[in-house]
Design a protein that fits this description.
Strand content: under 5%
CATH superfamily of the domain at 4-71: Homeodomain-like
Helix content: 40-55%
Number of helices: 5
GO molecular function: DNA binding
CATH topology of the domain at 4-71: Arc Repressor Mutant, subunit A
CATH architecture of the domain at 4-71: Orthogonal Bundle
Keywords: DNA-binding
Subcellular location: Nucleus
Protein name: HTH CENPB-type domain-containing protein
Structural class: mainly alpha
Number of strands: 0
Organism: Araneus ventricosus (Orbweaver spider)
């Protein structure tokens, strides 16, 4: 797997990327490309440095970055409240003797 030509720049961008992801920030390819230009300038890198789509693919492939954006709902979810809901739902299913056919997930559908 071939990385980009500047290992120092790659490491700085990757560390920045990991930090932002841990903060729950959604990072797009365009944001990475813009940040790479900024870091390249700070490091005194090549004035002809460009962040093409080929550069971005090489950057993503080297450390194995698969998905740049983070789903907002996933990052904002309350795990503890979700666990409480699961327990309460299980109690309700037993109490009302519901079957699997009577239980629906309406998260991604609309009712008409």
């Amino acid at each position: 797997m071939k990385c980009t030509n500047d290992e120092e720049l790659d490491n700085i961008i990757y560390n920045w990327f990991i930090q932002k992801r841990s903060e729950g920030v959604s990072i797009s390819g365009i944001i990475i490309q813009q940040k790479a230009l900024v870091f390249n300038s700070i490091l005194g890198g090549s004035k002809g440095f460009q962040t093409s789509s080929t550069w971005l693919e090489k950057f993503k492939n080297c450390p194995g970055i698969r998905q740049l954006s983070i789903e907002g709902e996933k990052m904002s979810s309350d795990i503890e409240a979700g666990n409480i809901l699961i327990v309460e739902l299980q109690k309700l299913i037993v109490k009302e003797k519901l079957t699997a056919d009577q239980i629906n997930n309406c998260d991604e559908i609309g009712l008409y």
